[in-house]
């Protein structure tokens, strides 16, 4: 007969070497390059600072408030701490290799709270807001926070998932303008152009990727699937907006009827 202790789920509230090794299969925490600890209920980052060679870290969907243990991760390139309870990101100022930071869905109070990141010369992407998952921060209530951040971080290429400079920024702005036009119902002569039935560009299963034991491939697989998921959500939203606009314009173009 199994004891109650054996039936209990493991406690992940604090990161330990046992947790790190069990999640990665590594015998030495210094060998860990990629680490995904998403939605485990983690409150205390514990010994994560011992993973000194860590390059990519996903701590999204937990209850983290203190980032101090991350200060020793000098080789960290990508950090996702979205959907936690973080208000102070000053410990990240020591992560000198950091290129991408996602802190959407936290408690960052103001743009001044981000000044500590100015020393990170390689930082190219910051995310404080994610409309796909309805993640935000108190700082995002400031209507000019985006302009302030762009002035504060002149090397930033991507802000809140939107490319602001470099290759692709013009295309993004064009798509954004088209989207705004659709939402506003601004159509030429008040009519929607007739569009042919949409057909898939490729056959079913074309984008499927076979899983691999290679950690780098697995990480790329995860990121690719995240992008696909976001694209599907955006596609569904666009379909709803177009449908609503069609109904609105259709109602406006119908002749008035009067009761006899």
Could you walk me through the main structural features you see in this protein, from its secondary elements to its overall organization?
Helix content is 29%, strand content 7%. It is α/β, with parallel strands linked by helices and 260 residues long. A seven-stranded mixed sheet has the order 1-2-3-4-5-6-7. The termini are far apart. InterPro entries: Leu-rich_rpt, LRR_dom_sf. It comes from Coilia grayii (Gray's grenadier anchovy). Keywords: Leucine-rich repeat, Repeat. This is Leucine-rich repeat-containing protein 61.
SSE order and pairing:
Elements: H1 4-7, H2 17-24, E1 34-36, E2 56-58, E3 78-80, E4 100-102, E5 125-127, H3 145-152, E6 158-159, E7 162-163, H4 169-184, H5 215-253
Parallel strand pairs: 1-2, 2-3, 3-4, 4-5, 5-6
Antiparallel strand pairs: 6-7
């Amino acid at each position: 007969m199994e004891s109650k202790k054996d039936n209990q789920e493991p406690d992940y509230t604090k990161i330990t070497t046992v947790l790190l090794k069990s999640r990665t299969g590594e015998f030495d925490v210094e060998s860990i390059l990629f680490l995904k600890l998403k939605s485990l209920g983690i409150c205390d980052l514990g010994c994560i600072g011992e993973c000194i060679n860590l390059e990519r870290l996903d701590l999204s969907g937990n209850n983290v408030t203190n980032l101090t243990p991350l200060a020793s991760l000098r080789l960290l390139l990508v950090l996702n701490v979205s959907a936690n309870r973080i208000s102070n990101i000053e410990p990240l100022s020591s992560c000198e290799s950091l290129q991408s930071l996602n802190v959407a869905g936290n408690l960052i109070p103001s743009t001044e709270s981000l000044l500590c990141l100015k020393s990170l010369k390689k930082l190219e992407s910051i995310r404080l807001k994610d409309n796909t998952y309805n993640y935000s921060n108190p700082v995002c209530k400031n209507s000019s926070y985006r302009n302030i951040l762009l002035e504060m971080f002149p090397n930033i290429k991507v802000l809140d998932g939107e490319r602001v400079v470099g290759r692709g920024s013009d295309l993004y702005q064009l798509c954004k303008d088209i989207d705004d036009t659709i939402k506003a119902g601004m159509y030429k002569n008040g009519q929607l152009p007739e569009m042919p039935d949409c057909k898939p560009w490729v056959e079913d299963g074309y984008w499927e990727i076979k899983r691999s034991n290679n950690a780098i491939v697995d990480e790329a697989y995860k990121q690719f699937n995240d992008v696909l998921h976001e694209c599907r959500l955006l596609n569904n939203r666009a379909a709803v907006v177009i449908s609503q606009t069609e109904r609105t314009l259709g109602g406006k173009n119908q002749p008035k009827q009067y009761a006899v």
